[in-house]
């Protein structure tokens, strides 16, 4: 029996990846519900870059245009809510919203992104996405040639320093405790004029998210314009795990070439599946998931 709460597909997460999947499915005449609670990971960043046709636009503007594109398709509905549970199996899933209301679908797409875990460091969260940045391809150009820090240690710190040296030669690695570089890495960092500071950081001084100083616990501070950081993350929801989806060692939802998870009928796309965090990658991933779901539905119904 067809009810108002029955859909072909429910997409959980309505940002870059989810809207992109919704666009493909709307154009495939599928009855779709996109549920989103409005917390994309890039919401604090002033401008998005490295995104063809929208380079330098605000994340909110990009999403407004994206949502308008998808709203043009009458079989796609939107719900501003939090998904609290997903149960069931291929062709018969139940999605619980705000712990009370139920919606039903044959297929599920998780486009839920990830939640970055900020270190306990005053000023860090306020600067995140503004002058404390995750990716030089997204924001490195704006800080080219500037006095730049990297908050990282060991192999991660070494690789980041190597990568970011492309954008500036005024680099300091803040290891925030004893450095753990190998002798070879240490020599290479010194050879490339990258300073290493192992003092523990107390807090960041900033003005409206624009970093000015890294302040140490003992004493002293260093003036910088930008700080790169690789943060640990968690999935936004444990629903994929509860459904039985497999995860990679890094904590991403495991998917195949066409975004199928290890659970039949459950697909995933965007940041929750990959370390390659860019808008264009999330959008491409959403398109692929949408097309793959639609193809499966056709296959089952034919
Ligand atoms: C600070 C920062 C700056 C960035 N800058 C750039 C840039 O300049 N250029 C670029 O190309 N990329 C940039 N990125 C990367 C880019 O933002 C991401 O790759 C992209 O947003 C991923 O899209 P997504 O849809 O997978 O996840 P997100 O955009 O994070 O969206 C996930 C959505 O799912 C929703 N959601 C999660 N769980 C639930 C639930 N249980 N119920 C309902 N809704 C839920 C969230 O509210 C959110 O709207 C940046 C990332 C960060 C963190």
TrEMBL record:
Record keywords: Flavoprotein, Oxidoreductase
Pfam families: Pyr_redox_2
Official protein name in the record: NAD(P)/FAD-dependent oxidoreductase
Annotated InterPro entries: FAD/NAD-bd_sf, FAD/NAD-binding_dom, Ferredoxin-NADP_redctase_2
GO MF term list: oxidoreductase activity
Entry keyword Flavoprotein: yes
Domain of life: Bacteria
Domain FAD/NAD(P)-binding, first and last residues per copy: 7-286
Entry keyword annotation includes Translocase: no
